[in-house]
Design brief:
The protein contains 8 helices and 4 strands. It is of the alpha+beta class and 206 residues long. It has 2 domains: 93 residues, 3-Layer(aba) Sandwich (Glutaredoxin); 96 residues, Up-down Bundle (Glutathione S-transferase Yfyf (Class Pi), Chain A, domain 2). The longest helix is centred in the middle third of the chain and has 23 residues. The radius of gyration is 17 Å and the shape is globular.
Amino acid sequence: MSIVLHHHSHSRAATVVWMLEELGLDYTLQHVELRTGEQRRSAYLAQNPMGKVPLLIDGDAVVTESAAIAVYLADRYASGTLAPALDDSARGTFLRWCFYAPSVIEPGTMARASKWEFNPGSAGFGRWDDMLATIRSAIGEGPWLLGDRFTMADVVFGGTVRWLVQFGMLPKEPAFTDYIARLEARPAFQRSAAINAAELEKHPAG
């Protein structure tokens, strides 16, 4: 059975298209009409009670949350390449950056943009300057988070950094923009961008 991705181009599902293109897998896109609340209907909520996209169906497997989808796909279809094997010492770094993006970068930038008042020692995303320093350290000399090895962590982490820089929520400093340029040069990224643009043309109001 083909993988089915419940998708909208203006959602994190766009990044999952990039993941699938990196893997070279056959898949089908199932458009979710967010404007009309299709993601809140009972049939959809039965599979994802959060009522959000992406939602990935792979045979009997139902996977939500972008980082979880990334690790699932890389482990199942590219273990040893896009995901370090379970006994590879690089596995820890891979997992660290896969989950740093949704658990630290996203809430950290939202907190700053929304001017939240919080105790940095109690919040998992900590201090803004520490977060920026950590992103810089992760990118390092590059070209990728695991040095010369491109992995699915770059899709999750790099995709998040790219989106936030694009919308002015992270600074456009050279370490970030150079990393983004390397990501955007990847053929799989370019294919995914074209696919997402074509889907948006087909569903302009959604």
